[in-house]
């Protein structure tokens, strides 16, 4: 049993999934260390500071943090075999454990609720944690995005060690590791092409359904997820007991009714009503009633870079969002359009392979949701290192969108782009910044808002 060990080392600990597991182990009195190539750059020192608050020691990715006391080295599927720290662990005969295998063992040790689907996982995990935490259930948490309510002390906010036996996890299908988990409650939110073809996703989610021990819950309002509703325990969404009605969005707040109970949540987008309905279906199984859910969600604080309102200046609203696949980008655009009169969206694709894979769907989704005066801008694809065939550019996507009649513009250098965009913003405009994987995006988004205030005096 890996969990019987006391001394762990994480390679790539700066990543969201890895840092969450490292914090969970540290919170359970394990000795945790880790390295990341991000630590070679001073602008990422804040990540080391956040991890230090959790008693986690950080190192450069040079092998200096691995020694004879290390009992297990944890890696993700993103770590290449040529990594020198893997070589050092092998030389010292230290077991090398996949992150997903460790998480599967953790899941087996708790009453696990696994949230899966190609969109909405982080938000539903955060919403459900907030509901259960506010209602006294006190679950533990391992997720991919920091909760604002947990970031108040300067931490990352994507992990928590609760007092009950319940554990909430964001279960990722992108690397195929979802099939390793055997939760008590499994939740399937959506199925859209992202990282994998639909046929492969179907096989993964079918295995996830078979592995779920007690209750499997699906989004009945999502066409592909609905197909998994046969012989299952519970549905939510259209035509079910957990169905939202009379949806409204005013400013940065949504409201709707479920069984004549009014819900008001400080967030935007109809998709977040669906996310809340998913939480209600799970909460009901744990004895938390709709009235309690409604009361808790009034104080939901949101999560890192999910429709994060950076501020408003002279009637111009700036929003930062993690959207990066076609469905998420379309949902983000639609959610932000009611906030202002005109939407100026910017997206930085990540990875040459992923961009090539979703090119057609991305162009279709953006084309279908843009209004006549809206604009979409893109900067060059974010490259995180490693081996990649650089045979596609964000400029190719922009050309596709222009061909579809969309106001689409390319500027390779994102800093130069905003010198052009900011000066043309007017009262009533919404500036939506989208992108994932690039750790500098949060800092960049905040710099854009500060530049806006400087330019527009």
Put the structure in a nutshell.
The chain has 457 residues and is an alpha/beta fold. 34% of the residues lie in helices and 21% in strands. The strands form four sheets. A seven-stranded mixed β-sheet has the order 8-7-9-6-10-11-12, sandwiched between helices. A six-stranded mixed β-sheet has the order 16-17-21-18-19-20, sandwiched between helices.
What this model shows, in words?
The structure is a single chain. With 457 residues, this protein is of the alpha/beta class. The chain has three domains: 2-97, NAD(P)-binding Rossmann-like Domain (Rossmann fold, 3-Layer(aba) Sandwich); 110-297, UDP-N-acetylmuramoyl-L-alanine:D-glutamate ligase, CATH 3.40.1190; 308-455, Mur ligase, C-terminal domain (Protein-Tyrosine Phosphatase, Chain A), CATH 3.90.190. 34% of the residues lie in helices and 21% in strands. It is built from 14 helices and 21 strands. It has helices at 16-27, 45-52, 84-91, 99-108, 121-134, 198-211, 223-226, 271-285, 290-297, 326-336, 352-369, 394-403, 414-423, 441-455, and strands at residues 7-11, 31-35, 56-59, 72-75, 96-98, 111-116, 140-142, 159-160, 166-170, 185-188, 215-219, 234-236, 245-249, 254-258, 261-265, 308-313, 316-321, 342-348, 375-378, 408-410, 429-435. The strands form four sheets. The chain has a seven-stranded mixed β-sheet with strand order 8-7-9-6-10-11-12, sandwiched between helices. Strands 16-17-21-18-19-20 form a six-stranded mixed β-sheet, with helices on both faces. It has a five-stranded parallel β-sheet with strand order 3-2-1-4-5, with helices on both faces. Strand 13 and strand 14 (254-258) form a beta hairpin. Helix 5 (121-134) packs across helix 8 (271-285) and helix 10 (326-336) runs parallel beside helix 11 (352-369). It is globular.
């Amino acid at each position: 049993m890996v969990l019987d060990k006391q001394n762990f080392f994480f390679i790539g600990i700066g990543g969201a999934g890895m840092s969450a597991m490292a914090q969970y182990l540290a919170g359970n009195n394990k000795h945790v260390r880790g390295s990341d190539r991000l630590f070679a750059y001073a602008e990422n020192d804040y990540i080391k500071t956040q991890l230090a608050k959790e008693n986690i020691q950080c190192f450069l990715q040079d092998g200096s943090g691995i020694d004879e006391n290390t009992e297990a080295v944890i890696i993700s599927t993103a770590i290449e075999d040529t990594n020198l720290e893997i070589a050092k662990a092998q030389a010292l005969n230290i077991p090398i454990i996949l992150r997903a295998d460790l998480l599967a063992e953790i899941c087996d040790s708790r009453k696990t609720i696994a949230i899966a689907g190609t969109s909405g996982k982080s938000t539903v995990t955060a919403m459900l944690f907030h509901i259960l935490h506010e209602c006294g259930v006190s679950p533990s948490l391992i997720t991919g995005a920091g909760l604002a309510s947990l970031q108040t002390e300067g931490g990352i906010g994507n992990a928590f060690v609760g007092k009950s036996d319940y554990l909430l996890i964001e279960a990722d299908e992108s690397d195929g590791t979802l099939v390793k988990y055997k939760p008590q409650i499994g939740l399937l939110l959506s199925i859209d092409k992202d990282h994998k073809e639909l046929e492969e996703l179907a096989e993964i989610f079918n295995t996830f359904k078979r592995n779920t021990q007690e209750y499997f819950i699906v989004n009945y309002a999502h066409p592909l997820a609905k197909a998994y509703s046969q012989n299952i325990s519970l549905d939510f969404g259209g035509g079910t007991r957990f169905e939202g009605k009379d949806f409204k969005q005013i400013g940065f707040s949504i409201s709707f009714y479920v069984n004549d109970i009014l819900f008001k949540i400080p967030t935007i987008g109809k998709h977040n009503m669906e996310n809340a309905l998913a939480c209600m279906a799970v909460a009901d199984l744990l004895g938390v009633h709709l009235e309690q859910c409604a009361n808790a969600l009034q104080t939901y604080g949101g999560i890192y870079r999910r429709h994060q309102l950076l501020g408003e200046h002279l009637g111009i609203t700036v929003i930062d969002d993690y959207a990066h696949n076609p469905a998420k980008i379309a949902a983000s655009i639609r959610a932000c359009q009611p906030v202002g009169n005109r939407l100026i969206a910017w997206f930085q694709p990540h990875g040459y392979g992923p961009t090539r894979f979703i090119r057609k769907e991305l162009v279709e989704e953006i084309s279908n949701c843009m209004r006549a005066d809206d604009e979409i801008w893109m900067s060059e694809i974010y490259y995180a290192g490693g081996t990649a065939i650089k045979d596609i550019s964000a400029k190719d996507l922009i050309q596709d969108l222009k061909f579809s009649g969309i106001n689409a513009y390319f500027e390779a250098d994102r800093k130069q782009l905003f010198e052009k965009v900011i000066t043309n913003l007017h009262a009533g405009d919404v500036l939506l910044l989208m992108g994932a994987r690039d750790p500098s995006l949060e800092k960049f988004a905040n710099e854009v808002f500060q530049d806006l205030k400087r330019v527009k005096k």
